[in-house]
Amino acid sequence: MGFLSVFSTRKRVADLTEREVLALAIANEEEDSRIYQSFAEACASEFPASAQLFEGMAEEERGHRAMLFDLYRQRFGEHLPPIRREDVSDFLTRRPMWWTKSLKPEQMRTEAALMEIQAANFYDRAAAQALDTRLREMFLQLAEIERGHEKKAERLEGELLTDEAVAGEKAASHRRFVLTYVQPGLAGLIDGSVSTLAPLFAAAFATKNNWETFLVGLAASIGAGISMGITEAMSDDGKISGRGSPWLRGIACGVMTTVGGLGHTLPYLVPNSVPNAFWIATWLAAAIVAVELVAIALIRTKYMETPFMRSIMQVIVGGALVLAVGILIGST
Known about the structure:
By secondary structure, the chain is mainly α.
């Protein structure tokens, strides 16, 4: 009952006074300016052209906020009523700031355009529903202001985002993707695919028991994933190196380490009751190891610009050495 009573106190825009509508518009302009400013700060280090664009949009929003507040001051004085966006059931909503900060520059620009269109459309609908003439005129004025924002943003985008600037931002975005996801993920895949070979095949040749071998491989894969993930996250906070969020890198590294180890562990789920179960599982595991090593070489070639033949030789030699150690220890 208390939950329903809280929401029953929320007003609709049509129920607001002229003073409250104007105060709500002022609050909306102020919040949007902060969103654009946060976009600018997020882009500042790697995407200067987009940062300059969002700085201009934030300044535009602050200017319109000042204009609306001047109008409010002339009619109602200095004090703004304590009305918030969430107090009005059918007013505009914005995405949370933690979500918007994780966007790429092109996604930020799309989000900004959507914000302006939503605001203009909302004020148009509100004007069509308003019965009070003065309130209707105010809604129409606010809709025109929002359309002016959209046109100003388009003009700024045309001036600042030249072909050269866009190409530079795409290169920076690709570099961030490689440093945040590909490099840690590749390190994890290499570690999971190679380092787990020794304990897995040592257990396999020592026990000749598929289930026990599977448990050893499972423990090695998950343990290595946790260890590598924590190591990646704690070794570099990304502030100096520019490698991005430590937790995103840690998750990428940890997950790929586990995947790399589980790939050649799963064949040992072949039941021991199956004839030649050990050799079936072992040959399947060896085939999966070969696929993993080729995949590593391909990723290195695509994202790290390492020649494929050099990469394939490196991973094969490394994998073969670890595999030989596991088989040798397990056979003694």
